[in-house]
């Protein structure tokens, strides 16, 4: 469902303590005076510090699970008033589950905003993206980037890769019958807004494994990197009839993030290529699990299209 009537500044009063922003962090190479031309961790870590300041200034609760950042970086977080929870698990998805579990248990928390820490501009849009849940119009909100701002403010590699991958994920969701053909989701934006309800949170606590060892080797698949929290729970929510809503926001990527990705283009291009290949393969595996028919014509179409898209 697309929520079309969500004002950017609602007259409805939101208690900021009812909203918890949660995110994992990992900036091993962050330096307070690092060479920003070559140090991606310093660039991204500095953006994250802005995100946390904006979050705290707005009065929202915040949960941070850290996977081993530079102690100097953690000191900066503490200065802002952020309480840091050391990561217990070893995977990206385990860090996200730890975030969600802690956040869901906080007093007064009604809405969980799961966000990548480098998306500082999204903090200003929190009233807009939590409102469908507060109004009981949604169980999950998937914010969507304005396409023009997306193209203007991010690297060309990221824009092309994620635009095509989003189109494919939406097409397959339409074919599977879990998403109305008139609707689309920004699958690759990464921000998720959840109703703090055990039935919804539990969708994001599951862990999946892919038993096809050849697929794991050829497509770099590992659901614990992205799919276990970022994709599979949304598919499961759509499949089970939960209210999943898309809300477009005027999000702009930080200029420093675009600059560092363009300066380290080869490194980021390879990262995004591998990310796209693995996520699309994992998407297909979940579709195979859903349909319980690995030889279905739909699965074969999906595999063919995913292989073509991986080479774009």
How would you characterize this protein structure?
- The structure is a single chain.
- This protein is α/β, with parallel strands linked by helices.
- The protein has one domain: Spore Coat Polysaccharide Biosynthesis Protein SpsA, Chain A.
- It is about 50% helix and about 10% strand.
- It contains 13 helices and seven strands.
- It has helices spanning about 40-55, 70-80, 90-105, 125-135, 145-155, 155-175, 200-205, 215-220, 225-230, 230-240, 255-265, 265-290, 295-310, and strands spanning about 20-25, 60-65, 85, 110-115, 140-145, 190-195, 245-250.
- Strands 3-2-1-4-6-5-7 form a seven-stranded mixed sheet, with helices on both faces.
- Strand 1, helix 1 and strand 2 (about 60-65) form a beta-alpha-beta unit.
- Helix 1 (about 40-55) runs antiparallel to helix 11, helix 6 (about 155-175) packs antiparallel against helix 13 and helix 12 packs antiparallel against helix 13.
- The model has no long low-confidence stretch (mean pLDDT about 90).
Q: Could you give a short account of the major beta sheet? A: 7 strands, mixed
Domains, number: 1
In total, the number of strands is 7
Structural class: alpha/beta
Percent of sequence in beta strands: 5-15%
How many helices in DSSP terms?
13
CATH class: Alpha Beta
Mean pLDDT: 89
First-last Cα distance: 30 Å
Report the helical percentage: 40-55%
Unreliable segments of 5+ consecutive residues:
none
Shape: globular
Q: How are the strands ordered across the major sheet?
A: 3-2-1-4-6-5-7
CATH homologous superfamily caption = Spore Coat Polysaccharide Biosynthesis Protein SpsA, Chain A
